[in-house]
Amino acid sequence: MEIPVLPKKNALGLIFKVDKQVGRGDVIDIISDFQNGVMVKKQYQHEFCDGLGALLLTASEWPSLGLSLPSRRVRVTNPLTQLLPGIRGFLQDLSQHETKWRHFDPLEKYHPDFSARRVFSHQSSQRILQAAKRQNISLTAFMLWHLNSVISENLMLPEQKKSHWVLPINMRRQKGEELRIENRISSVGLHFDKDLGAEELGALYSATLNPVHAFANEILTEILAMLGERRLLELARSRGKANSWTGIFTNLGQWDFPDSPQLDHWPLAVSITPPGGTPVLPIGAGIMSWRGHLSLSLRLHPALAAKQPELPDRLLDAARRSIENSVGDKTTLLHG
């Protein structure tokens, strides 16, 4: 596992460092598909970088003139209308959640092997994007809806009515911060009835991307970090094996480049798999689009999958079939 050397750790990095000491995983995978079927996998610890930082570290090894980050951060547009919904969302994140799984063994130790991914062809990627546009929802909400439907049906008990997802938010705020690789993210919680329709989830997702909500969670992280490593460790241990969130769902963005001879040495497709490394947050899922190839990745904590190593692949196959029903056609894959 590659460990980048950084001049300092920020607040979120300290929390990930402490989580790792109590056996919770924090591995980010960046997988690149090159010409002639060559695949390169890089792993980074969340203690040192976030998803965008992991991509920057990986891309630093490719011949290039530099990689610039797309702007994917929430903005304050109307503080008066965003304040109360943001506070309500923040308080909802702090409330107790419980997820009833069909199989869940909190004693299973973390390791990052239970993962799978699907990388769609150019044509299928465009059809998926058009299907999301027809439903007037974002690509993130579209993909999350299909994956959540599969997870609810296959992993949750019938009496479990709610899903609770963590959505990372890029907090790089000004020029000069965009190429920083350490953790520069906050998050918002997306809480919804698991039977919610795709269009309704799309509207809820858009409303959840609230800057007040993200800033409040960022401030909470800074306050927690002030407790220091020892007290954070005590707090992490006191949380025990409680199970609350469904998982984390991240979108690393859309990356398109003008034609250049240097692209011959760049990957055809790139995918990200976020941690999903604690019994509290047992699922990690991620999407991104690289040079027209949309990817979907999934990681399960062994608490959910220890006896079924093929489970991530089965779930992604089911999600692909669900996506095809919306697209109205079979999808083709570059990889998976």
Structure summarized in a few sentences:
With 336 residues, the chain is an alpha+beta fold. 37% of the residues lie in helices and 21% in strands.
What does this structure look like?
- The structure is a single chain.
- This protein has 336 residues and is α+β, with helices and mostly antiparallel strands.
- The protein contains 10 helices and 10 strands.
- Helix 1 crosses helix 7 (211-225).
- The longest helix has 17 residues, at 139-155.
- It is globular.
- The model is unreliable at 1-7 (pLDDT under 50).
What structural keywords apply?
336 residues, alpha+beta, Chloramphenicol Acetyltransferase, seven-stranded mixed β-sheet, three-stranded antiparallel β-sheet, 10 helices, 21% strand, globular
